[in-house]
Amino acid sequence: MGIVEEAHNVKILGSDEQTVVLAHGFGTDQSVWKHLVPHLVDEYKVILFDNMGAGTTNPDYFDFERYSSLEGYAYDVIAILEEFGVSSCIYVGHSVSAMIGVIASIARPDLFTKLVTISASPRYLNDSEYYGGFEQEDLNQLFEAVKSNYRAWCSGFAPLVVGGDMDSVAIQEFSRTLFNMRPDIALSVLQIIFLSDLRHLLPHVSVPCHIIQSMKDLAVPVVVSEYLHQNIGAQSIVEVMSTEGHLPQLSSPDVVIPVLLRHIHHDISV
Fold first, then answer.
1. Which residues contact 176 (CB under 8 A, 6 or more apart)?
2. Which residue among 8, 24, 50, 95 is the active-site one?
């Protein structure tokens, strides 16, 4: 087992020639794709992995300097593809991993046939001509809450982000993976995500993008998906689903899985 494979808990399922890479967002790990994977393995080779810093990874591998920007994660994705000899893939990225895929596709467009993004945002902070959903004061309070009592913050954050019934399995699942993160790593990752501004990169994207979004998402307003659509340099398409929450693949799989499969199977019609 190579260091990349071990560090990211890489799993390869299925055996078809076409590869689908599933990349999870903040506070989760590869288990967030459990509803989707069974529908893919008969037709595709599926690569699952954990982002560095996820609770399932060894915290000793987390290099605060390397992961002081999202580029470090993008290089990890490229390293995984190279390690397993993947010449091209369909990349499905949730939340921050959607933007990590954007960065990786700009660096190595040859490795990606298309990007499928779920709950993606290039910037969370509002500015004069852009609505990302958050003011700086909101983020300051968020970071302070994480610092002061991580477990208490997790308990409040999980239901807000997932949405729906407070006792749902999806909230319990997200709470579990969120609790598993080391608090100082979680804070660092949150700060990088919420303070990033990747809008300038969007015109450089040359890989077709399928942008999927919940109608109601505490972290990403619907207008952000339209912003991505208008500013991405490549061909793109938006689908807003009648779902609630930032992790719809976990909380509303009956709605989301057919949508994801359609975008994975079919390219954008010209």
1. none
2. 95
